[in-house]
Amino acid sequence: GTQQTPPNQVLIALALFLTFFIMAPTFNKIYDEVGIPYMNGDIKTPLALEQASKSIKSFMVINTRESDISMFAEIAGEKEFYSKEDIPFSIALPAFITSELKTAFQIGFLLFLPFLVIDMVVASVLMSLGMMMLSPMLVALPFKILLFVLVDGWSMTVGSLVSTFVSQ
């Protein structure tokens, strides 16, 4: 049924393109402030990596829930941070990933609910018609796809996902 719709290759491509779209301001900033001076030989590799990682860490910290940063800081035994620059990369990265997983599960849950209702309605109708041998998943799949298309599901999903990010 819907477990294979859309295929993983489509989801991975969508994730990559959305990553490039969302990260474009950060990538442009890194290119302008670090990439060009590094390619011109004005700065050395360690300094370039440090400056680039600061921009990426800044993006992650801005787009991470404070509760996730606090949790990983507590686990690592770190003290309280007075500014966003004080947060180490080793805490910002797992906190960002955890925060994004939480958002992904919330979006997935909101997508799952209407599909669950469709499954229940189709199963009830088929049972009341005495069609116990006909798989409800087989009948429900076209209705799920139709609903997703009618409500412009891709725009809603991508729009709600992109709107959770703040550019620098």
Order of helices and strands: HHHHHH
Task: Compute the number of strand runs.
Answer: 0
State the shape.
elongated
Give the terminus-to-terminus CA distance: 40 Å
Nearest-angstrom radius of gyration? 22 Å
Structural class: mainly alpha
**Sheet having the most strands:** none
Number of helices: 6
State the low-pLDDT regions, or none: none
DSSP strand content: under 5%
Overall average pLDDT: 89
Fraction in helix = over 70%
Describe this protein's structure.
The protein is an all-alpha fold. The chain is built from 6 helices and no strands. It has helices at about 10-40, 45-60, 65-75, 90-130, 135-150, 155-160. The chain is elongated. The two termini are about 40 Å apart. The model has no long low-confidence stretch (mean pLDDT about 90).
Descriptive terms for the model:
single chain; 168 residues; mainly alpha; 6 helices; 75% helix
Topology:
Blueprint: H1 8-39, H2 45-62, H3 66-76, H4 89-128, H5 136-150, H6 153-162
Helix pairs in contact: 1-2, 2-4, 3-4, 4-5
Please give a quick description of this structure:
With 168 residues, the chain is mainly α.
